[in-house]
User: Which sequence fits this backbone?
């Protein structure tokens, strides 16, 4: 048994863990491991928003974004997703991960990428676009996996996998896996603020974030699961999960959830794959924890997972959670409806 916090990220604790030193978790879980060369990662959520009659054009736009990843300094890992939001709009999201923030900046500023995003043509296509980008430092994110091979998401940037870790299976364990939690409460600083454009009018809108926005990606992969595990997922795990995700999407604002999207992975033709995950932005980690520990929608998810976790063989469950500095965030929208992403909760641009 080892700590989820790697040795080179350990420091003298000024804040205590949520459990005693002799705690033993109820089943095995693992975390991603990276060497000291990983200082910061970039997580880029690049979206195309559309009405169903524009699906073909939206697919072409999504493929253009994916093709741009093949250029110099593209991401080390990416995937594509689809969901319908609560305003009835379809959304394709291409998610890219960079291990080197400097490479990401070169990619972003390349004439081909920047020129396409900045072009006036984006305003006249009848599509919406968004890019939501956070770049947590190594001490500002944590991972957790119920499997040890082919890690998805940020795990694909890591150098390997840990042994069985101590910090899981109890309330507050996600916080305890953050290296920064040894000395920092990760409290929110400031408010979301529209700094350019007007969400109600469409066009280009920029939202400024704030310190310690929390982002969770929590996934399920049943690609190789047999009939029994598929039945377990669809009949027992998915119903309470779907209820929880819909609740956060529609009513999470009062709890500090800025945006919640429950998405399915897709291929380049938009066909659904047997992989899904939640993309949730929260005002802070403690707001996310409060919902997880006390709200009936999450308690049903948590108790169902505990009941089935020890019997899983091919059903792959995981999550990654990060916080980031305001200076390492970018939230931009083009012709998206005003409830998209960070726009819903952002304070209006000062007059």
Assistant:
């Amino acid at each position: 048994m080892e700590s989820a916090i790697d040795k080179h990220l350990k420091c003298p604790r000024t804040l205590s863990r949520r459990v005693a030193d002799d705690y033993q978790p109820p089943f095995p879980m693992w975390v991603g491991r990276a060497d000291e060369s990983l200082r910061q990662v970039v997580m880029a959520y690049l979206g195309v928003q559309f009405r169903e009659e524009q699906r073909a054009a939206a697919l072409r736009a999504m493929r253009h974004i994916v093709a741009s990843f093949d250029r110099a300094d593209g991401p080390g890992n990416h995937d594509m997703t689809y969901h319908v939001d609560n305003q009835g709009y379809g959304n394709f999201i291409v998610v890219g991960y960079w291990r080197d923030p400097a490479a990401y900046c070169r990619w972003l500023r390349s004439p081909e990428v920047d020129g396409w995003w900045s072009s006036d043509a984006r305003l006249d296509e009848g599509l919406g676009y968004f890019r939501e980008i956070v770049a947590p430092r190594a001490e500002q994110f944590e991972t957790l996996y119920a499997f040890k091979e082919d890690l998805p998401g940020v795990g694909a940037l890591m150098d390997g996998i840990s042994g069985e870790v101590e910090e899981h299976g109890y309330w507050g364990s996600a916080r305890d896996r953050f290296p920064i939690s040894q000395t920092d409460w990760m409290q929110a600083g400031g408010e979301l603020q529209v700094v350019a454009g007007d969400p109600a009018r469409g066009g280009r809108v920029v939202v400024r974030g704030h310190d310690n926005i929390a982002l969770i990606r929590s996934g399920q992969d049943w690609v190789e699961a047999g009939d029994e595990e598929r039945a377990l997922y669809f009949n027992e795990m998915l119903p309470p999960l779907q209820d929880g995700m819909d609740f956060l999407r529609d009513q999470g604002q009062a709890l500090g959830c800025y945006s919640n999207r429950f998405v399915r992975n897709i291929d380049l033709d938009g066909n659904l794959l047997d992989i899904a995950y939640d993309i949730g932005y929260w005002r802070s980690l403690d707001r996310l924890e409060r919902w997880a520990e006390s709200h009936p929608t999450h308690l049903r998810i948590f108790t169902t997972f505990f009941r089935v976790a020890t019997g899983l063989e091919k059903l792959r469950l995981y999550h990654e959670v990060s916080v980031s500095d305001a200076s390492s965030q970018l939230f931009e929208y083009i012709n998206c409806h005003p409830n998209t992403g960070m726009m819903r909760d952002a304070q209006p641009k000062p007059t």
User: Anything to note?
Assistant: The helical segments are 55-68, 101-109, 111-118, 173-177, 227-251, 285-294, 296-308. The first strand starts at residue 32 and ends at 33. Residues 1-351 form one domain.
